[in-house]
Structures are given as C-alpha cells and as structure tokens.
Amino acid sequence: MDYRLKIDEEVIALQAEKKKDGSMVLSHAGRTFEIEYTMVSEYHQHLTIDGCPLNVFIARDGNTKMVVIRGTPYYIADADAVENRSRGKKRDQVMPQEVTPPMPAVVVRILVSAGDEVKKGDSVIVVSSMKMESTLVAPADGRVKKINVAEGDKVMPGQILIDIDKDAAALPRE
Amino acid sequence: MVANRGEIARRIMNTCREMGIATVAVYSEADRKAIHVLKADQAVFLGGSDPSESYLNIDKIISAARQTGAEAIHPGYGFMAENPLFAERCEQEGLIFIGPPSKAIRELGDKTIARRTVTGSGVPVIPGMNKPESDTRALAGEAEKIGYPVLIKAAAGGGGKGMRVVTSPKDFQDACASATSEAKRAFGDGSIYLEKYLARPRHVEFQIIADRQGNVIHLFERECSIQRRHQKIIEETPSTIMTPELRERMGKAAVTVAKASGYVNAGTVEFLVDQQGNFYFLEVNTRLQVEHPVTEMITGLDIVRIQLEVADGNPLPITQKDVRSRGHSIECRIYAEDPEKGFYPSPGRIIYMEKPSGPGIRNDCGIYSGFQVPVEYDPILSKLIVYAEDRGQAIKRMIQALENYVILGVKTPVPFLIDVLKSEAFAKGDTYTDFIDTYFCGWKPDRREADAACAAFIIDELTRTVKPKPAAGMESTELSPWQTLGAWGR
Questions:
Q1: Total domain count for chain B?
Q2: Cis peptide before B149 (omega within 30 of 0)
Q3: Contacting residues of B for A85, CB less than 8 Å apart
Q4: Between chains, do B449 and A45 touch, taking CB under 8 Å as contact?
Q5: Which of A12, A13, B235, B474 is most buried, by CB atoms within 10 Å?
C-alpha cells in the first residue's frame, strides 16, 4: 500500500507491504526495511527494524500522530488528508490575519477599544499562558471593529479575540 | 498543610508521611484531579482556577488550615512561599509557617533591602540600585549611571519574572513597562530596580539552613547556569568551577548573609561568579528551591525533614563538619513547553506517560497519564534527578533517563535536554548563563529516525480495525495547539 506522509513540513512517499507472518516491508527512497512489530499497548509499539529492536511511543490526534523515539517527537500526518482539509478551509491564509493566541491562554489586558485605529504591529491584547505573558499585535493597518473577549477569559488558538477591519488602502493589491 | 500544588506539594507530603505527619492539600477548580489532591490525607477546595482565588488567597488558605486543624503550613516554592504577609498572618493565627520569619522574608524578599543588608556585612554585591523606583525617567537616569547593558529586576521577584536585559536606551521604556506588569501579575507588586548586567556569568548558589538557636550551616553549592528566559532548566552539584578554597569562601559568605538577616529555616544564597572567579551576592531565595533535590542526592539529607524539625523548634540535627558530599547529581526540569519554538508554553492533556527508573534516578513528578495540565500555573511538570559517582557517569545516566522518559500529549524539552547533555560544551562544564543562546540558538532536534517513526505511523493505521476516533483522554473540549489540526474530514 502507498502512503504519502507529512513529517516535519516535508512530504515523503512510502510503500508498505504486510506479509503473511505478520511482519511488514517498508520501502522509502529506494531503501527497504524489514519490520517486525508487537503492539505492547495502545501507545507503545516494540519494533524490530532489520534486526534492531526499538521502542516507539505513539499518540493519535485526528490525522496527526505524535511519535516519540528515544525522547525525540515526530509529528506525522497523512499528507492527502492534510491537503484536502486546507483546500476546503483555506485556514492557512486566514490565520496570520487574525488576532488569535498561539496557545491556550488567559486574557490579561486589552489595550484597544472598539473604533480605535491601529497600525500593523501595534500591540492590541496581552494574554498569559502558564505565567508567561505574550502580546498579540494588529496583523494589518485598520480599525478595531469588535472585541470578542474580556479580561480573565480563557482563550484557545484559532479563536478570534479582536476583529479588525482592514483599511482598504492597506490591503495588498490583487 | 501544603499551600502549593503539583510536584512540590507531593514531594513535601512524602516526607510528612515518613515522619508520621498527616497531610492536607489545597486545590483550585483546575486542580480537582491534580496529583497533590490525590495523594493527600485530606484535601480542601479553595476556589477558582485563577491563583488570586485559590493558591494566592491568604484568607482561604488560613481558613482551610483552621477547618482541618492543621498546625503548620509548608508553602513550597512560588505562590505564598515568599510572601511576608502570609508568613505574618500564620504567625498571628498561631500556625507554624515552615520557612523563615516574616521579617526575614520581607527584608530579603525586597531585593533592594537585601542588597543594603548584605553590603553592610562585607560580602560583595553587583553594582546597581539599592531601592526600587517607579518613575521611568528616574530609572533611565540610573541606567545611564550604571551603564548599559542593564538588567531590570522585580524588587519582589524571583524565577526570572519581571526580569529584562536592556542593551540600549531606546528599548528601555517598553522593557520597564512590561517588566512592571509581569512582576505585578506574578508577585502582586510591580516595583522594579536596576543592576549592572554581567556578561557571561555563572549562577552558583548555596543551600543554607538555620535553626532558631542561631546555628547556620550550608549544604554546598548548586550550579544553575543553564537557563532559558532567566529560568533554570538544568542544575547540578558540585559546580565544575568549584575548588575547595572557593567553596570555603563562598560557603562562609552564604552563612554570613544568613546571619546578617536573622535567617531561620532553609534558604538559598545566590551568587554570580564572573570569568575571573570573583563572586557577587545576587539574592536570597527565602524558600525551598525547585532544585533542592540535587543537594539531597549528594549529601544524603532530606531538606524538607530538616525544615520541619527546625520549624518545630528543634536545633539542627547536624553541624557543618558533619555535612559530607559524595558523587555528582544533575536535575533536568521537565516543563510543558516547546523547545523548537522559543520554549513557549504547551499546555494540554497528558495522553500517556512512562517514567524512567533505575539506580540513581529520582523523578519528582506532578503529572500522570490523563492529567490535564492547566494554563493558569507554572508549566513545570516534573523534575528528573540523577545521581552517580562522578559527573561523566551522571551525564550518561541522565541521557539514558531522558531517552526513557515518555510524555505524550504536550511538548516538553526532553529532546533539547538530551542534546545539551550530549554536547561537548556541557561535558567541558562550559556552563554560563548564556549557554543556550551561545550553543543552542535556533535548535531543532535531529530527526534521524524518521523512517522508524513513519513505520510506527503506518503500523498504527494498519492495526486499528476501528475508524479513528478520539483516543482515550482526548474527549476534552479544550484543544491543545496540535489538536487544532483537526480530525479526519468526515
């Protein structure tokens, strides 16, 4: 079976073939690996790759899996699933234009009010996560349309904290 | 009663249990299932997740002690540990505060008063201001006098909160504002002052402990130079720069500082050591330190036990000459943070974990599989400590232990720590406070086992007969940053 996996921003193609004895042959970039495996638990695989034993730990989250080998994490996703999804939602293009926290956080201070004019890079809101404060900035020149949160609110990545109407003049020409 | 949470509350309760002392935990909304609640003989709910409604709320903590009949309160580190008002309140209420008297906390806690006290005792201090200042213009004047680069510090501070290095006057105003705000949030007091910023110092501290009879001893040094955001991540003892002669002088200075300030109970005297081997008093941390375990490993002493004995009015069980050190110990702090993105916090749920074990391995751990790491508190998850006969062996042991430490669900600095411990710079003991910026700027892990990781991904796909559904422990409505990638589009 063919796989296209996205690992560390890179997409790689692999072929996996399950054999009758329960082992697997994996081919990637002209190399072939003989892999035996034992599912120790839902989170733990014991692999023997070309005769070398290896403990691998894995947690799933939708189509991304966190795989940990000797303390190093790898984040792996099915490349096709990721591409389908971003085509549908165009999330990547929307995200940098919005005021949203990079991690789960609590709102500490709101530095602007509705109606304020802001310039790209102006500080608009301060959030705190695990005692570390981060200041979020206006993604573009514009006017604050609406503030969607209050001080003390718990906020998540992707949540739009402040709506900013971009200046028509500041919009990049198509 | 332990007025704290997580790993430190659990560690203190372990010693209490050994001593036959019953324990009371306190907790907030976010910590209903935290490890310290599960391990205590009794637990009292304080209130909301915001620290001001729980772990920083003096009235609620005192009333929890009253309600349960607790006789003494151990504050751990952070939260109430260095709040003189809390210690004073305990004194007034007839509760034993396991720490120094409120007067010593007040005088040493205000870093500027501490600087004045120590200046009088003849121990060298870093050039800088001896009182806090709120007027930015006056501060800017002081900065000019001291000379850039300067270090802005919170007068009430510790743990790197409210600390900023300023290299040029143009950044000074902004840095003051953000330092004040961070300090206010962390300590309830936004006062700041300035010190000369020393280039490439080492951070070396001495553990001290004093009884009410006036005896003070030190338990040698800890080298804590490897820091990110002015917060320590790797500590060890002995320090690689230490000679018996320097240890003797610095130990004496630490004891002098403790005596000058009327210190009782456990504390830490911090020094910066410059390139020439001169040492300067930095500050006294009037609490049990995060990194106290390395001292326990090499001395064989239980510092929390001595704290409890001294708080009960007993004299120190040992004298300076009884304190012996053997071997080498290293601690790595395991935070919920992303070492590839500037050590930004990474809260979330611990989906699965496996702790390392073996000779000379200690894990002071505040989490378990299934635990939701709250966003409201410090990101420390656990502390991994190793002990071995010498430094080389301790480093190898720590690398092994880290490689066998599995934490799935949040990002941790484990791969970063492994690379630091494997580095030549660390092996040489080239540990200055700019270590990470110098040797590990823009660090990324070497993902050399990507093929095996992909194999694991595929095996996981093949062996799952059911369609992917949220794994156990993922039902939470809260999203971790990597959960936001979303589920299969269906």
A1: 4
A2: yes
A3: 486, 489
A4: no
A5: B235
